[in-house]
């Protein structure tokens, strides 16, 4: 098992939820947490605990971002006019690795980060190898010609467990995707309930 796969499963078990909706998630077999005390009955979370959990779940969903990275994105969401929680989701979904994942070019968000890092992706015809690159509306994301027959890409395109959301137009025959618009929370196909409002409350108090 690779380090990335292990991390993905570890996050699922820590949260007690199958946050990516993956068929192989260990939570599908046992919902209790990891470790020898994982099956103990859990007490009711405090407000702080509930807010922290919401933050960790959202942060983990996008490839287990570091706290520094996530805090920076939150600070930007707070500066922009409008609802901070909605802005946060919009900024996270505009990350290049998130768009590559949403377009079903790779099977997981962890694979998307690695895929971009290794130079397999172009934005408007220019190679970009920075996973956090901020995609703009109308940008065309494509898989480089020599990378289109990679096993990981062919596997992802055929995955039945998720669809491409309507804010991205994907053409798998050409291996291209257009980022149509920045989504609102309700547009994003999360496999579990996300609560960015609790993330806002967490940072407002801490």
Automatic annotation (TrEMBL):
CDD domains reported in the protein's UniProt record: S4
Biological-process GO terms, alphabetical: ribosomal small subunit biogenesis; translation
GO cellular component, one term: small ribosomal subunit
MF-aspect GO terms: rRNA binding; structural constituent of ribosome
Gene3D superfamilies: Ribosomal Protein S4 Delta 41, Chain A, domain 1, RNA-binding S4 domain
Region (Disordered): 23-49
Domain RNA-binding S4: 94-158
Family annotation (Pfam families): Ribosomal_S4 (PF00163), S4 (PF01479)
Domain (Small ribosomal subunit protein uS4 N-terminal) ranges: 3-93
Keywords for this protein: Ribonucleoprotein, Ribosomal protein, RNA-binding, rRNA-binding
Family: Belongs to the universal ribosomal protein uS4 family.
Subunit structure, as described in the record: Part of the 30S ribosomal subunit. Contacts protein S5. The interaction surface between S4 and S5 is involved in control of translational fidelity.
NCBIfam families xref list: PRK05327.1, rpsD_bact
Function field: With S5 and S12 plays an important role in translational accuracy.
Protein name: Small ribosomal subunit protein uS4
Source organism of this protein record: Paracoccus methylarcula
Taxonomy of the source species: Bacteria, Pseudomonadati, Pseudomonadota, Alphaproteobacteria, Rhodobacterales
